[in-house]
Amino acid sequence: MAAQYTIRASPKEASKPVDLRNGSTVTEFILVGFEQSSPSTRALLFALFLALYSLAMAMNSLIIFITWTDPRLSSPMYFFLGHLSFLDVCFITTTIPQMLAHLIVKNHIVSFVSCMTQMYLVFCVGVAECILLAFMAYDRYVAICHPLSYAHIMSRQVCVSLVSIAWFFGLINGIMLEYMSFRNPFCRDNHIENFFCEAPIVIALSCGDPQFSLRVIFADAIVVLLSPMALIVISYARILASILGRNSSSGRGKTFSTCASHLTVVIFLYTSAMFSYMNPRSTHGPDKDKPFSLLYTIIIPMCNPIIYSFRNKEMKGAMVRALGRSSLSQAESV
User: Fold this and answer.
1) Could you count the other beta carbons within 10 Å of the beta carbon of residue 45?
2) Which residues contact 135 (CB under 8 A, 6 or more apart)?
3) Which residues contact 156 (CB under 8 A, 6 or more apart)?
4) What is the pLDDT of residues 282-308, one digit of tens each?
5) What is the DSSP letter of 225?
């Protein structure tokens, strides 16, 4: 079902109203975001989101640096982790800086082209991350269930190919979803009840019947979300069977610890994505959508490096070495 969002006039005359009677066409959107909040609440949210954004950028950038420069982190798991952090940096940079700006300025207008660009990047990076997480689950399956063949199966060439596949499907899928989102002209209210251009909300504002576009996006979400999810479930089911068949309890604990971080990321990401793109749109609304949007746009990118680094001794050691080299370089320069 199509989304049923409340259409209302903005409390601030940020843009010219759309006159439906003369067939005016929308050329810009207004991101409502948190404009209904009080100034003190917006200031608090700005400080909170700025801190989360800074932490996410710093930690993901550190992981990218150490996984691409530390020779001790040359295994496929860290190769994938570096690309996951790169995707997270791209994702939060696409949405959060704009939200921070809108928390401190009154003008929430975004151009049609800016909205299209933002939506494409969200689609592209989001799809690539879903597929990459599935490949990371397969990597853990091969490492745990076929340790003797691991180096041969997950060779450098195979890893590069898998990452390329994730990016390729993200780029192509983004083009298709972008077309479905903007195939109809926009002549209704131009207020987007979120802090970024999210596809189902934007489609609901288009002229004509949005049902076809929403059905296509729903079908695409089934493929993009459920297919990688199936690979993840199969991989971890076989890992669990392998763990339970072992006699060593210490080996079980170590394996569980290795996979727990990946499972945590998967649960958070897929839960929020399924709510946003696979639930009936009639069950949605601004108050329900914003928390899930915040979950997969800033909370998950911030949690990824924390989960992987604090649960992994090799990552913590690499971070200490990287920070130690940085401190030494600064001391020598002085």
Assistant:
1) 17
2) 80, 162, 163, 165, 166
3) 79
4) 455 555 667 777 877 888 888 888 877
5) I
